[in-house]
Design goal:
Layout: H1 3-56
Length: 69
């Protein structure tokens, strides 16, 4: 294998690795957006839950049902 062949091989590998890194970066960026959206949804659900508990909370003397219900 000549030195020129080795350089060509290395350049091809680098190009492939660059493409792979870009593809992985795109996936990570998209997953970051999904995670952010899910965090907002969870925060909204927690807020709704706390509002419902405030509206329909147990009155004095009432006990919540056991966790297995």
């Amino acid at each position: 294998m000549t030195q020129e062949d080795r350089i060509v091989e290395l350049e091809m590998r680098q190009a492939f690795q660059d493409d792979t890194i870009q593809a992985l970066n795109d996936v990570i960026a998209e997953q970051g957006k999904v995670v952010e959206r899910l965090q907002l949804q969870v925060a909204e659900l927690i807020k709704r839950y706390e509002e419902m508990v405030g509206q329909y909370g147990a009155e004095e003397g009432e006990q919540a049902p056991p966790p297995h219900y």
